[in-house]
Design a protein that fits this description.
Elements (H helix, E strand, L loop, with lengths): L7 E7 L6 H10 L4 E7 L4 H10 L11 H10 L8 E5 L5 H10 L3 E4 L7 H14 L3 E3 L7 H11 L6 E9 L13 H6 L2 H4 L4 H17 L3 E9 L10 E8 L4 E7 L8 E8 L3 E5 L5 E5 L6 E4 L8 H5 L11 H20 L14 H18 L6 E2 L1
Parallel strand pairs: 1-2, 1-3, 3-4, 4-5, 6-9
Antiparallel strand pairs: 6-10, 7-8, 7-14, 8-9, 10-11, 11-12, 12-13
Helix pairs in contact: 1-11, 4-5, 5-12, 9-12
């Protein structure tokens, strides 16, 4: 069947009642009307899965008690009925076994970040994806913003010169109170090493920072020195981190994250200073990019202007300038790119992974290497560690 003449069929693991990111994925997947959610195992609790399925008007026969059952039974369906790909929106601990199961069953995967629970799982997942040739998309959603893509093109083209200094910060006050002791689902798994992994805030939002700065600059973090803090009693994972960066190009950087920064909501901010200019972008005001060139007036670029924005930025824009686009639309751009790659694969003309316009399994491995290097450094009195 020509995959360009129908909607793609999506399954979902996780995202049941009480979850946050699963709802976001469903909204993003639905935005461009190219995807139908047709199957799911939304929770380890079968009753939650059934209730979520009813809420989403899904066929009850396509609701599964376990992800293993779902992979097996979906694979046994005809090509005109089974899912084309699965979205994984569970806590970190289960990302790898779920992705492995569906890849081995022949399904493409969209996975939330960080990619895995452990570093060796990320390395194994890279091998699985490469061996299968299947599409794997990682939802570092901030790379989907039009002006982030324009900033990237400015550095790719060389028009801003060589990167000298990067400052990226992501500040929240989400964990100011011990919400996990009050049964708060989102806080509970994030502060628990058994479900989150070796890092807390570094994994949850620090990976977004590392991914964003590497995506925009095209430069990689070579070494880092990390200092972490945990302020609330009984917590075992980092709540706050300050990281010095040595980039592969010779540029220097600062990465700072916190989920106990009083008064902050979702303050992700990137500043890149280069030899011929600089940019500043803020997630809470994503429709604006500040562009600086030495000796010239500062410029504010806004999304929706085809006359001066690059093609990747205009391709990621849905509505005219002045009508705000934001978090969900950027998330949807990751799905939009994944859909194109999956359709091409189904039709026997797979796109090279190097041509993907969304984060890949290799970006996921970079994120895990960042986490492990930062934790190692923090445990060694801020020693410099290679990433």
């Amino acid at each position: 069947m020509d995959a360009w003449k129908r909607k793609l069929r999506m399954g979902m693991i996780g995202g049941g009642q009480g979850a946050f990111i699963g709802v976001v994925h469903r909204m993003a997947a639905a935005m461009d009307q190219q995807i139908d959610l047709v199957a799911g195992c939304f929770s380890r609790d079968p009753d939650n899965t059934k209730a979520t399925g009813r809420q989403l008007y899904l066929d009850q026969t396509r609701l599964y008690d376990t992800y293993e059952e779902m992979a097996r039974k979906e694979a046994a369906l005809g090509s005109d009925e089974r899912i084309d790909f699965v979205a994984i929106v569970t806590p970190n601990i289960s990302h790898f076994p779920i992705a492995k199961t569906f890849l081995e069953a022949g399904f493409h995967v969209v996975c939330d970040k960080p990619m895995t629970y452990k570093l060796d799982e990320a390395e194994a997942l890279v091998r699985l994806v490469e061996e299968s040739g299947l599409v794997f998309a990682l939802t570092h959603n901030y790379t989907g913003h039009p002006l982030v893509r324009h900033a990237r093109e400015l550095f790719r083209s060389g028009s801003l010169g060589a990167v000298r200094k990067v400052i990226v910060e992501y500040l929240q006050d989400f964990l100011m109170a011990p919400l996990e002791k009050e049964g708060h689902k989102q806080a509970s798994w994030r502060v628990d090493p058994a479900t989150s992994g070796v890092a807390g805030t570094l994994g949850d939002i620090g990976t977004h920072c590392a991914n964003l700065l590497e995506y925009v600059t095209g430069d990689r973090i070579g070494e880092l020195s990390c200092d972490t803090s945990t302020f609330l009693p009984d917590r075992r994972l980092d709540e706050d981190a300050n990281v010095l960066l040595r980039m592969s190009s010779g540029a220097k950087g600062i990465l700072t994250v916190s989920q106990v920064a009083t008064g902050e909501e979702n303050n992700l901010r990137l500043r890149v200073y280069a030899s011929e200019g600089a940019v500043t972008w803020e997630q809470e005001n994503p429709n604006y990019l500040q562009l600086y060139r030495y000796g010239q007036p500062r410029q504010t670029l806004t999304r929706g202007h085809d006359e001066y924005l690059c093609q990747p930025a205009t391709d990621a824009t849905r509505i005219p300038a002045g009508h705000p686009e934001g978090y969900i639309e950027a998330f949807a751009n990751i799905y939009k790119g994944a859909v194109t790659a999956i359709r091409s694969h189904i039709d026997g003309n797979p796109i090279s992974i190097n041509a993907y316009d969304f984060p890949t399994v290799h970006d996921g491995l970079r994120g895990m290497k960042f986490i492990y290097a930062a934790v190692e450094s923090a445990g060694s009195n801020c020693a410099w560690v290679k990433v």
